[in-house]
Amino acid sequence: MKKTYLIKIFGLLLLFMYDVQMADAQLFEKLKERVKQTAEDKVINKAGDATEKGMDKAEEKITNKKTGKDDKVSSQSKKTTTPEQGTSKGAAQGINSYANYDFVPGDKIIFQCDFADERDGELPGRLTLIDGNAEVQTMNGEKVLHVQPNSEMQFIPVMKNNKYLPEQFTLEFDVMMFDKEDYYGDLRVFFQDSSDPKATGYSSPHYVEFLTLFDYDKSPRIGWAKPGSSNLADIPKNVAGGSGTWKHIAIYMNKNIGKVYVDQHRIRAVNNLEPGADMLRISSSSSRPVYIKNIRLAQGGDDAYKKVISDGKFIAYGIQFDVNKSVLKPESMGTINEFVKMMKEKPELAFEIGGHTDGDGTPDRNNKLSQERADVVKAKMVEMGVESSRLTTKGYGSSNSIAENNSAENKAKNRRVEFVRK
Predict the structure, then answer these.
(1) Does residue 270 share a domain with residue 171?
(2) Which label site among 64, 174, 288, 381 has the fewest CB atoms less than 10 Å from its CB?
């Protein structure tokens, strides 16, 4: 009886070992098949990618031959744009480095172009290209204007008429250029007479060639150049830009007075400009790509205290935040510095800081975001020495819009921080 029992146990054990062996064999076969299939997929995908790239390259050559363009300049980028070597570092150097920044933009927006509603690979809908190649692309989740390498480009804003610059205005934009051994390139801003929008500007009596970040093999320069005279000065390369970093350019003009800022640095200030220019033109010539974003023209730029006294409030378009966040951009410090200084000099002043959004998004989200942004501004001002009791905050969301939510300019007008005197 005991012997029979042991034989049965031994038999079951052999059967179990056989099943395990068979399962392992089946598993091995499945793994082998999976490896084989993966290898085949890689070959197929690689071949497909190579075919697609070859077709893209052939299509590019055909397009360039038809349009008479050099093969070195692509007609359209089919992939998301990324900076050279992936070295985009952003425009911000830290908000604390803007402690002495004094640029305050105008409080009436004339033109706003952030490319947010435009499609990749398309020509910019808000800019008229006079010459050259440029297209809208996405870079790190942001829409930018990509100027093709080895090309010259000029554009003017699309406006209802060509006479849109007032006597007092501000211009802001961000630019990324590259500084290499074989690099040449420049970026120039022209304020000129509108009698001929396609003219180079050199013959205009009001012409001002304003900004040169790079000029071939010369040192970076910045300033003004007028017919027969110039006021350009060499500046350190780390201030001017290069190496794939975003630089924030801010320009203030008031009749014969002009100031130019690169990031937190005020580089030039003059008072001998010829007044009367009424339109804007920007040009670029570079052996490497140039990227531009966040172009904004605004009327005004008055002392904020005058506006507070005359209007009882000040619309602070200079206070900017990261998209859909309550994180202050460093260039916001120009306006914040102005109000902190004002409140320290005028102890009788007290303000409500009102946060406002455009009409995109849900009301709940906009209310929350606008409140958070107003709170952040107050916190920064209190940190800088303003008594907390003199500041209150309120997030209005999109409930107090001052323009329809139907264009880039109108959305920019609605996205604002207001200082309302109490």
Answers:
(1) yes
(2) 64
